7,8-didemethyl-8-hydroxy-5-deazariboflavin synthase (Cognatishimia activa), 375 residues
Amino acid sequence: MNREFDEKLAQTHTDDLLSMAADIRDHYWGRKVTYSRKVFVPLTNMCRDTCGYCTFVKHPSDPAARIMTPEQVLAQAQKGARQGCKELLFSLGEKPELRYEAAKKSLAWLGYERMTDYLVDMCALVLEETPLLPHVNAGTLSEEEIDQLKPVSASMGMMLETVSRRLGREGMPHHACPDKTPTQRLRTLERTGAKNVPFTTGLLIGIGETWEERIEALHAINAAHRKHRHIQEVIIQNFQRKPDIAMALHPEPPLEDMLRTIAAARIILDPEISLQAPPNLHQRHIAYLEAGINDWGGISPVTIDFINPQHEWPEIRTLAESCASAGFDLVERLTVYPRFIEERSAYLDSGLTRRIRSMAGQDGLARDQILEAAE
Ligand code: SF4
């Protein structure tokens, strides 16, 4: 892709852009749209960053700040397993122990010095005590951390969000957020690729980035993928305004902007990369299908979306009906996509291969398809 192509893309009429993207999706992914039935475990809501749009993070002085104990992790995991979940998503703030004494003390009380070490043990606990597959969303990772996490997690993820350095300036959403410098995040994309980790990443839309910066971010993801073929999915997520954030007055991106960005992503990215947009962050999410998505991401029958707690997940059966009306079948996948399972390649840790393969059907999607809501 070149500059001329990018300029043409920006000028293409929305209907044509959507139609090009939908054709690519239909050709590669067909009319199946997937989701992952998962349980969310917010291991800690403390973080050394302070992104202007984040409602998940809690300062250690906040009574709601916490690190979940192993008992709490297990209780949540077992609840998810009882409801037919197959994936457990660990989401957590970035290395709070490096910034806050209180976080360091809470971690020490649990017997750990580094959050990553605790996360590794919690993944192992989940694997030992439940049938779930852990997926970890722990932000930027060093090579050593990836090596520690790979044997205990089926897949990993980190939103690239943006490649805009501008957004790190004073008054901007990533100001004073050491883990949000694009160089750090691109390094994690590269490192996980070199270590063959099935990886999820994505863009956060509407936080002040320009169209050109979005396109640049998509090319950066694609370049990492072309080198390592490890990007299993890209999420296009829309910024949500909330009363308790620094960006409380910042406008949310309009639907057309989301649709154009999703379509551009489908056109730019290698077609084998799954394209996802969350169904709970826009009432008219079904329109995303017209822009080329093939996946809705994680939907939980047992836990809320801790990142956007005011937005409920759709009922899985209701979503299936909406998809059917739009001409798509909703099917359940695992946290690892079929391409990584089929190849029996280095992307799966040998200790997890048997479990993952036993949970997959012939098509690499979830063997036991569940469309029911929680009991
Ligand atoms: S968005 Fe992530 S990195 Fe930023 S403050 Fe929230 S938890 Fe931390």
Residues 31 and 178 are 41 Å apart (CA to CA). The radius of gyration is 19 Å. Strands lie at 32-44, 87-92, 133-137, 155-157, 199-205, 231-238, 274-276, 295-299, 329-333. The longest helix spans residues 211-228.
